[in-house]
Amino acid sequence: MGLGISRDRVAPRTPLRCPVCAGDLDGVMIRDLGGVTANLVWEMHAGRCPEHGWFQAEVISRPPREIFPVDRPFGATRRLVIDGQEVFAFPTVWNNLPLAEKRKRSPDPLDAAYWRAEPPTGVAMGNGVGRR
Ligand SMILES: [Zn+2]
């Protein structure tokens, strides 16, 4: 397997969900990248959607800005095609907050509300696809 490194925690809790279907992820792993400063949260979260594959997100004291499709946990970014559009990253609610809002807030980096995926960059919205 090659993943049995002690700094990786297997099956821990993560706010990470599939950015495509918002489903629960299997095989969740969290890699602790921190240690520089005691109170710095610096982690990589990864998990696999049974339908859409592996995804990961990096937490550096703040909620992640993007969720990336990857070929394996902590692996390379892979290309995902949704509705004929290539997607390389899903911006999160946190990413899309106005800068002024971000400055005012100092959220729990693991607050799931900020981890929700927004429509990916490159997918055209408002052109009749997905209209409510
Ligand atoms: Zn999914």
Descriptive account of the structure:
The structure is a single chain. This protein has helices at 93-96, 99-104, 112-115; strands spanning 8-10, 26-32, 42-49, 53-60, 66-70, 80-82, 85-87, 90-91. It is mostly beta strands. It has one domain (8-115). The protein is globular. Zinc ion (ZN) is lined by residues 18, 20-21, 23, 49, 51-52. Zinc ion (ZN) binds at residues 18, 20-21, 23, 49, 51-52.
Order of helices and strands: EEEEEEEEHHH
The largest sheet is:
6 strands, antiparallel
The largest sheet has its strands arranged as 1-2-3-4-5-8
Radius of gyration: 15 Å
Residue windows where pLDDT falls under 50 for at least 5 positions: 1-5, 123-132
**Mean pLDDT over the residues:** 84
Task: Provide the helix percentage.
Answer: 10-25%
Please work out how many helical segments DSSP would assign: 3
**Basic shape:** globular
What ligands does this structure carry?
zinc ion
How do the strands and helices of this protein lay out in sequence?
Blueprint: E1 8-10, E2 26-32, E3 42-49, E4 53-60, E5 66-70, E6 80-82, E7 85-87, E8 90-91, H1 93-96, H2 99-104, H3 112-115
The site of zinc ion has 7 residues, from loops.
In summary, what is this structure?
This protein has 132 residues and is mainly beta. It has helices spanning 93-96, 99-104, 112-115, and strands at 8-10, 26-32, 42-49, 53-60, 66-70, 80-82, 85-87, 90-91.
Task: Pick out its properties.
binds zinc ion, disordered N terminus, 11% helix, 132 residues, mainly beta, disordered C terminus, 3 helices, two-stranded antiparallel sheet, six-stranded antiparallel beta sheet
